[in-house]
Amino acid sequence: MFQSNSNEPNPATPAQMRSNGDREAVKIMVVGSPTAVTKIIHTLYRLGFAEVTAWSPPIPTAIPGEVMRVFVRRVSVDGNSQ
Q1: What is the rounded distance in angstroms from the CA atom of residue 78 to the CA atom of residue 31?
Q2: Which of 31, 29, 11, 25 is nearest to 73 (CA)?
Q3: Whole-angstrom distance, CA of residue 66 vs CA of residue 56
Q4: Which of 38, 49, 61, 79 is in Cβ range 3.0-4.6 Å of 44 for a Cys bridge?
């Protein structure tokens, strides 16, 4: 579904994502037309979710006219969470 870009690093393994103790990187993706993706990101900013600049630049997908933007948030992970 997504185009591979040889310039991009390989995705981190779960062990690598937990490099800060019990904090794990969680990736949130927004996929759609550039206009719709930007609108969602601005809405999430107004709701206090994340700064607009914290999202990746638009990444084209295999579908013409569709892009993906990614936000990474580190969250605490403990043995009791589900």
Answers
A1: 30
A2: 25
A3: 15
A4: 49
Give the separation between CA 53 and CA 14, rounded to whole angstroms: 25
Q: Are 22 and 63 in contact (CB under 8 A)?
A: no
Q: How many CB atoms lie within 10 A of CB 30?
A: 19
* CA distances in angstroms from 66 to 31, 48, 62, 78, listed in the order given: 7, 25, 8, 36
Name beta bridge partners: 75. Answer: 24
For the stretch 13-68, pLDDT in tens is 555 545 556 889 999 999 999 999 999 999 999 999 999 999 999 999 999 999 99
pTM above 0.70, yes or no: no
